[in-house]
Amino acid sequence: MTPATGTRINDDLTRPLLLTSWRFYLLVAFFGAFVAAGLAAWFSQIFFGIGIAGIRWPVYWGFYVTNFVFWIGISHAGTLISAILRLVDAGWRRPVTRCAEVITVFALMIGALFPIIHLGRPWLAFWLFPYPSERLIWPNFRSPLVWDFFAINTYLTGSILFLLLPMIPDFAVVRDRSTGLRHRIYRLLALGWRGTPKQWHRLETAMQIMAIAILPVAVSVHTIVSFDFSMAPVPMWQSTIFGPYFVAGAIFSGIAALIIAMAALRRFLQLEEYLRPIHFDNLGKLLLMMALIWGYFVFNERLVTYYGNEPAEMTVFWRTQRQSFAPLHWTMIACNFLVPLVLMGIRRFRTIGGCVVASFAVIVGMWLERFLIIVPSLGAKYLPYSFGIYRPQPVEIIITAATFAAMGLLYVLFAKVIPIISIWELKAGEHTPSAAARALDEERLGKVRP
Amino acid sequence: MPRWGMAADLDRCNGCGACVVACHAENNISTVGAAEAARGRAKHWIRVERYWEGEFPDVRLKFRPVMCQQCDSAPCEPVCPTYASHHTADGLNAQVYNRCIGTRYCANACPYNVRFFDFFNPSWDRPLQLQLNPDVSLRSVGVMEKCTFCVQRIRGAQIQAKAEGRELRDGEIQPACVQSCAPRALVFGDLQDPESEVSRLSRSARGAKLLEDVGTQPAVTYLAKQT
Of all helices (H) and strands (E), which one includes residue A255? Predict the structure, then answer.
């Protein structure tokens, strides 16, 4: 393969914006149908009452809170890849950063919907906002849910800025290559970008500041989400390990989501030359590392609980380990630990296909992890007389499926209007992969596309 | 300022369930019907828990009426984002229905599972709708509700005593469950008054708190023969 030149990069990466194939409409219709079904399900829940969902006494949190934690977790893809790799100036990050940052923004938007979807009276959700009401009632700043509100909004604001800043030069590229209405829109978005040294300097400085600022925010977000659980005196919830455990899990599922998104982009937008096997190989190694960290946390959490032998905790412990939730628990262990360990640990399997399979397993496993933290504990809380089971109802399943479709839909639409790979960053890297990377590329390409 | 508390003598409780019925009638707790109850939507602000001891045929049945323990250190209160769940000056865990948006966090945090959620708007099997208590507000869909120690009766008695220019007498206030308890297993009163019956019973050697080690400091004392 020949290294791409500047013009070719412009051509390849703006092509999806300027030309529309039937596949785009098909994808939008497919994802859109699911999203429409999800919206219908949500409206019917508001109309008939939250009782049409499966939550019940005493399992008052179910699929919705699971999805909330899961999607906020997915949102950690962008920060890690982009901010850390930017700070350490890892060259291979260049085609990956934007795909990752987009996941952050969309996953946060989807995740932040769930605290509203799950409310008994969602039309009063604004009471969580700290606005000066005429009755001088403020939200309760002692409540972890209010901390969530601030953490998620900070993270969303920060990651939108983090996504938008490096888009400015690319908007200018599209502006220069489009005509008519499109030209006028991108001219507005480009904010008068001329590419002067001063502008470049300011952009680089801003990116540096954002990359440093976003890291503690990202870590705090999932720590605070974990506080929703660890602050309540519920067996197996009250744990000091939950903060780092949740952050690690979030980064883990985020990398998995990123790998899946990149594989899809590569295939649908013919970006084989930009998203190369070396990127999947590197992300696969990250996935392997996170699988090991995740396994360490789970082992730690389980062993300490078992050794402590506290009756209420042991009830929940055995429920997940051996009793009704055991099938889900061991599926989670297989998906989150064994599959990534084998596929990513053995060099031969660390192909694009192998990465995608492992990532799907991690996505399933991480969703189950959130579910298994929430439901078994609530269903077996202290007094045996008040134990209960939870069965998800169609409305919850439809809304859950719809959020995955919403992610797909937003991603497809985004890739349609904005170059999904940062054009200027790619050029700045001057696409000079090391000899080793190129050799690996060729080896892998030969394997994947004989 | 009083501190309302209750004592429940488990050696007296015969599990008749009159307290449950009286509570439903007094507090306008909607009946959800058999199908919804089977799905875990029944709301009993007070419930009679049954525990069996021993092996068949030598079985003993124990009852334990469980209502909101009106904890001094209540896990339900700090977690509410809107202050719907809050602490009153006389130590009750109050629930402001109008302020509740239905995060259900309070119910998850409650170790006793004595908070109940309105999954739908309330309805009653005929002719129960004719006996609603005008002193107690109805709860709409999406709101958490719980035992209040019949706060409407507490406030009513306080106003009455004030109007008559006297102190409240011990035993003057009776929540619906206490009033209807035939074997007199439940006793209600002011824990700050060392002479009140509930104070006396709470100090009994037979007394214990429910899930004391969780650290909630409940206002309800359970009395049982210590074996």
Answer: helix A242-268
